[in-house]
Amino acid sequence: MTGREPPYRPQSVHFVDQLSLTAARSSVSASRHFLRLALAKWQAAAVEDDVLLIASELVTNAVTVTGELAESPTWAELEGLGLVHVRLVGLRDSVVVEVWDVSDEPPVLEHADDDAEGGRGLFLVQRLASRWGSYRTAGGKVVWAELAARPPLPRRQASERSVARPVVRPDVAFLRRVLLGLDSAL
């Protein structure tokens, strides 16, 4: 399922939590910790195992297509700082995991040979999610997977309510300036 819009209407969103990460191997683990905390906060721990497994696959793919940051990057490599974004969206009866990367290419289910070490991630996503797909954004795409949550998720109070918006690529030039010490805004 590829399109231009998220798989939900903004007015149906109960909660949203989002994390931006550098494209590094550690992003998969960091995203899992983030999602575990968010699911506990929103009383959706019943879907934790499946959400974490799906997120691991989607973040791994996002890091791969974005280009992995070296463990000890040079200053020149920081110029090409690549980011991935992970978002958890809670709806009444489901949660949606969204992962943004810089590639415009939609995800493709490919058949992996029996002795291949990889290539089965999207089959796993397809099997665990009630539905999944992607949509394009400025500067990349979001791959998403929706999982049913029983019982219905609690709704936040009106004063706490977040509005879900498509992931927007951060100002990478600004982040580079901060990392290089040229801007002290953070």
Task: Please give a structural write-up.
One of its GO terms (molecular function) is ATP binding. It holds the Pfam family HATPase_c_2. InterPro entries: Anti-sigma-factor_SerPK, HATPase_C_sf, HATPase_dom. This is ATP-binding protein. Keywords: ATP-binding, Kinase, Nucleotide-binding, Serine/threonine-protein kinase, Transferase. This protein has 186 residues and is α+β, with helices and mostly antiparallel strands. The protein is built from five helices and six strands. Strands 1-5-6-4-3-2 form a six-stranded mixed beta sheet. The longest helix is centred in the first third of the chain and has 19 residues, at 48-66. It is globular, with a radius of gyration of 17 Å.
* C-alpha-based Rg, rounded: 17 Å
Overall outline: globular
Spatial separation of the terminal alpha carbons: 38 Å
Order of helices and strands: EEHHHEEHEEH
Summary keywords:
186 residues; alpha+beta; 6-stranded mixed beta sheet; 5 helices; globular; transferase; HATPase_dom; nucleotide-binding; serine/threonine-protein kinase; HATPase_C_sf
